[in-house]
Write a structure and sequence with these properties.
Length: 298
């Protein structure tokens, strides 16, 4: 992605190889891929709509004006908003961070693409997000997962969404974990590794080994404690790369807190819309968003 390119190469390439375009969106009756475009870790909405199937760039061009570079292979600006090397465009397909540029991966009807312009130092990769629950569990970049397991009550919700789910959650493969943080750390090696190295796992919200809810604040470039938070809803992958199975985690300071957060998500999936991760208080209010940091209580 753009963030991996040396600054001088970036400037030179943009001068000689960029263009601006917006493709025709599909007819209202035609199937397409849903595309959302935001900034600053989902805080600001820029565009939303249905784009053409095909490459991610083609789909995105159906809902927003694109500027591309490197022979049209990478997006450098959307609707006039460009990255600067520390604040760049990143995208996820069905909740999984793409390992390649927008011209090198295709989307089909029913897929969801989320672009966000944000500061990334400290979170170079966020391999999976919860922004479009029940994605990425019901469908990855390459389509439905061959095996899927989940703890209750998420197993029930995933079945209702049409997924073939076994319960409780296994310790490998695509899965959803629900439980007290200490119990999940003991039960699932992935969650233990993720909490112990939140940066490597791409976590933007988690509960540390001391039982304190933490959120990544990209503006500060640091994690901050979230007083009053009792649970987090977050995702990563089994090996912290886009090629690995996705894992959605609802961890609580207690078992009851985790189950309450899971029920809140099932009842209102919009809690996680345009969010890499969130944390909730005992009343089910969102009190932090991954990347943004603490959110004032309403």
């Amino acid at each position: 992605m753009l963030r991996a390119l040396p600054a001088l190469l970036l400037v030179a390439a943009l001068v000689v190889a960029c263009g601006t375009s917006k493709t025709q969106p599909p007819a209202q009756s035609a199937p397409g891929a849903r595309v959302s475009v935001t900034a600053d870790w989902g805080v600001t909405s820029i565009a939303n709509g249905r784009g053409n199937v095909g490459t991610v760039i083609a789909a995105t061009g159906g809902v927003a004006r694109l500027t591309t570079g490197y022979g049209g292979r990478y997006v450098t600006a959307i609707d006039g908003q460009a990255g600067d090397g520390t604040r760049d465009w990143i995208f996820w397909i069905n909740g999984i961070e793409s390992p390649v540029g927008g011209a090198d991966v295709e989307v089909a009807a029913g897929d969801r693409v989320w672009w966000d312009l944000h500061r990334w130092p400290g979170r170079v990769h966020v391999p999976a997000v919860v922004a479009n629950w029940p994605l990425p569990l019901t469908r990855g970049i390459a389509g439905p997962h061959k095996t899927l397991s989940a703890d209750e009550p998420l197993a029930r919700a995933l079945r209702k969404a049409g997924a073939d789910v076994s319960a409780p959650a296994a310790v490998e493969g695509a899965r959803a974990l629900v439980g007290a943080n200490d119990e999940l750390r003991q039960r699932d090696p992935l969650w233990r590794r993720a909490v112990d190295d939140a940066s490597a796992a791409g976590l933007t919200a988690w509960i540390d080994p001391n039982g304190q809810v933490q959120v990544w604040n990209a503006t500060r470039g640091a994690a901050e404690a979230v007083s009053g938070a009792t649970a987090v809803i977050v995702a990563t992958t089994d090996g912290f790369t886009a090629a690995d199975p996705p894992v959605v985690i609802i961890a609580g300071v207690s078992q009851n807190a985790a189950f309450s957060a899971a029920e809140d998500l099932i009842r209102d999936p919009t809690l996680v819309r345009q969010a890499t991760a969130i944390c909730l208080d005992a009343d089910g209010q969102v009190v932090c968003r991954g990347g943004r940091g603490r959110v004032p209580r309403p």
